[in-house]
Amino acid sequence: QVQLVESGGGLVQPGGSLSLSCAASGSIFSIYTMTWYRQAPGKQREFLARISSVGSTTYADSVKGRFTISRDNGKSTVSLQMNSLKAEDTAVYYCNAAYLGANYWGQGTQVTVSS
Questions:
Q1: Are 25 and 76 in contact (CB under 8 A)?
Q2: Quick check: 78 and 22 in contact, CB under 8 A?
Q3: Per-residue pLDDT reduced to its tens digit, 49-100
Q4: Strand pairing of 57-59 and 46-51?
Q5: What angle do CA 12, 13, 15 make, to 5 degrees?
Q6: What gap in Å lies between CA 14 and CA 29, rounded to an integer?
């Protein structure tokens, strides 16, 4: 129903910034609740940030004040601006779209925070 592709991951130094993007295709983007998750090796998938179809946002305590989620319905994209990155932010970051009980996932993009 909807296909998601994450981009923007890479290697960044501690204290640096990175912006991730998730591009959607195949459906009407504006109806979906969009969420960013991450998963580090040996750890459970972790909720990071969510933005509703009307723009309401929710953040995990671990990223509150450092990460910002936003969406551009005209471009069918959701972004995650990440600032003050720490080594513990290293993970694969995933985009999720949800509507009426259906969930769709992107393939993930690797973020590595290291000197």
A1: yes
A2: yes
A3: 999 999 999 999 999 999 999 999 999 999 999 999 999 999 999 999 999 9
A4: antiparallel
A5: 115
A6: 33
Per the CB < 8 A criterion, the answer to whether 59 and 67 are in contact is: yes
DSSP 84: S
Phi, psi of 44, deg, nearest 5: -75, 155
Q: Which residues of 9-18 are buried (b: 16+ CB within 10 A; e: fewer)?
A: beebeeeeeb
- Residues 104 and 6: their CA atoms lie apart, in Å, by 12
Inter-CA distances, 1 with 32, 102, 108, Å: 11, 9, 18
Tell me the residue length of the chain.
115
Residue closest to 93 by CA, chosen among 112, 70, 110: 110
Structure confidence by residue, pLDDT tens digits, 8-44? 999 999 999 999 999 999 889 999 999 999 999 999 9
Which pair of tokens denotes residue 34? 């969009």
